[in-house]
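Q: For a teaching handout, I want to show students what a protein-ligand complex looks like in token form. Below are the inputs, and the small molecule is magnesium ion. Please produce the holo structure.
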Amino acid sequence: MAVFTPAAPVVASPGLAPEKAPPLAEVANLTVAFPSPDSRMSAVVREVGFSLAPHESLALVGESGSGKTQTALAMLGLTRPPGRVMAGSVRIGGQEIVGASESTLRRIRGSQAAMIFQSPRTALNPLKTVGDHLSRVYRRHSGLDKRRAQEQALAMLERVGMTAPERVLRAYPHQLSGGMAQRVMIGMMLACNPCLLIADEPTTGLDVTIQSQIFALIRDIQAETGLALILITHDLGVVAENCDRIAVMQRGRLVELAPTAALFAQARHPYTLRLLASILRPDQPPQPIDLDTPVVDEVPIENAGHAWRAISVDAWKALDATRPEMIEVAPGHFVLCHPEPPVEAQP
Ligand SMILES: Nc1ncnc2c1ncn2[C@@H]1O[C@H](COP(=O)(O)OP(=O)(O)OP(=O)(O)O)[C@@H](O)[C@H]1O
Ligand SMILES: [Mg+2]
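A: Here is the structure, written as tokens, with magnesium ion included.
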């Protein structure tokens, strides 16, 4: 775990070209830390920046522990003590999240942004029916009376593709399959009509058919409402099918951000190259994934007449003196790079 240093430079928000729609979500220089055993604050998310427009789907990928969930939680003001947002800014619909009051955060989470998790059942109250859950959202957010809220709850279950909505309305969470529970969560999220959905491994553990149904549902909602999606997943196949751009995280840092096709075709950061090399190929027997074996340590990058290097964390540790920056190597394609050391400093 990297030790947090307070002298963090502002990192730009790599994102859309200025002529496109104004961003819906903007993250800049976001740094989240937890106390380490020696009680110093250690950063688990470091200077992360990106932006997102309506309709867009951004995948957040990276090995376990790279900071994906902590980035998402911080975006919704859900970082739990002893964790703390140490620096940076998150704006959703123009509203600053970092440092906002609990009531502002609740309002934003109720109306603008929502998050769904891998285990939807644990987010549902086991003593309440699906109908209770959904009607409560309608009563709270739309001020509907009990009867209207129940009608809307039923309509929502139909909308998320439940085959026997009346029966599901009366069901308790333990009576739902994983796919049904995730649809209920998506229904509850939709009832708030948010503009941003953060889905943290929403289909892990579900079978492939249910998984594609859930993503088809999310895509339909995006087309209909302009919902923007941040999808956290380990499944690069799902990313290839469902996301416009990919952000790759390694040990708390965003190391590469690019349109999906560009990242698969021309990944530039050594860590992304390793990640892609570790994907199981259908024509090969399963290989153990060893992310500690570097495929490559450094990639030279020429940009605006300056020499930079994209460097793996191991190589970068030996190069403490330089501050990395996100460099745009092609339109919309950003890579975390260090400036080339001056000639006399090179071995
Ligand atoms: N409560 C906590 N106390 C201390 N460290 C924490 C705490 N919660 C998370 N971390 C650390 O934060 C880092 C990032 O965790 P995070 O959950 O964001 O990873 P992730 O990329 O979502 O991983 P995964 O793919 O396994 O879900 C990890 O190193 C983790 O150990
Ligand atoms: Mg996670």
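A: Two things your students might notice: The two ends are 28 Å apart (CA to CA). The first strand starts at residue 25 and ends at 35.
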